[in-house]
Amino acid sequence: MKKKRISLPAQILIALVLGIGLGAILHGNVTAIGYIQPLGDIFLNLIKMVIVPIIFCSLSLAIANVGDKATIGRYGWKTLLYFVIMTSFAIFLGSLFGNIFKPGEGLDPSLLPEGDISSYEQTATTAEETKYANSLIDTVVNIIPPNIIDAMAQGDLLPIIFVSVFFGLALASIGEKSQPVKNVLSGVLDAVFWMISKILLLAPLAVFAFITTTIITFGLSALIPLLKLCLVVIVAMFFFIFIVLGLVSKYCGVSIFALIKLLKNELLLAFSTASSESVLPIVMKKMEHFGVPRDIASFVIPTGYSFNLDGAAMYQSIAALFVAQLYGVDLSIGEQILLMFTLMITSKGMAGVPGASIVVLLTTLGSMGLNPQGLALIIGVDRILEMLRTCVNVLGNSVAAIFIAKWEKSYDKEKGEEYLSTL
């Protein structure tokens, strides 16, 4: 009789529980991190290794098959419009929850455990010294890479998307001559997805490593004095998922619960690793199976990783108000509107920067006259909250792909329902 194997989601949950337990036992043992962390780093490096060929091959093929410049342009403006509206709403919603529940009131800054933000400060200072620091202009300029190979080596998604679209249009324009190239791209794509299926077998080890090192570094005790902030962020995130994304999904004829069922493995992995990159290739593939045309899924989802980080945007607005309340600074309505606008601009300019949420907040708080050192007090819980906002980012971009497909009247609902029934 063949032995039944433990499913991958179950393995990840077991790794999560074991990691929390071991992390609590080893709390403060920095030496242990050097032995455990590499397990997670290896997994993320393997995922990053295949992201560039997947985006380049899938998007180039999709654009080449569409072949219509007007259609591609329509995808672009519709996608960016949707992203701007949803990110703005996420920031507004975060500000609303921050004003209603006031997570920073009544706390004594001197009694909170202080983390180290020196590495974030260095990144923020470097960004501010850039010619077009923290602006949409910077983002637009950097979309066009002076060196294609360098952009791919750095893993910068927006330049890779630009090159992929441009190359896809070139393939479409030369007609039948492009077929050998398209065959090669299709073969590479199939091979890379086979590689991903093997890489995902290491996911439980990565989850174990990341959770263990997080608990070792910060400990569960870091949650206690900042419990109110954590609860406000969690409530805001769940409200956004089930109400905002739920309504958008319903308009598209899809239940948000069905989407969560579809992506349950990817959400669990994204939560555990606090990395959207760890699930990007699989989410693209699943959305294609779910009825979103390949050209839309290949364009919208990678672009969303730079322009549509709803969870991060919401968290940033709550954290900014938390710091203001912590130091007794009463921001007027006008100042809060300026804060929201500044967060919108800086979050786009910082897309892809490690620790982007903290870096964005550092640059934003300084410009608003708030004490950026207040962020050092929430470093202990930032990693935990990052895990949750990563899930919101993944769901937000998945809903975006369905919405754009619906807007284009090309969403195949029957295909999606059929695929969901097989899970």
Brief account:
The protein has 423 residues and is mainly α. The chain has one domain: Proton glutamate symport protein.
What's the number of domains?
1
What is the percentage of strand-forming residues?
A: under 5%
Return the structural class: mainly alpha
Distance between the first and last residues' Cα? 24 Å
The CATH architecture category equals Orthogonal Bundle
Rg: 22 Å
Output the number of helix runs: 19
Number of strands: 0
Q: What share of residues is helical? A: over 70%
Label the overall shape.
globular
Q: Main sheet?
A: none
CATH class: Mainly Alpha
| CATH T-level topology | Proton glutamate symport protein
Organism: Jeotgalicoccus meleagridis
Protein name: Proton glutamate symport protein
Keywords: Cell membrane, Membrane, Symport, Transmembrane, Transmembrane helix, Transport
Subcellular location: Cell membrane
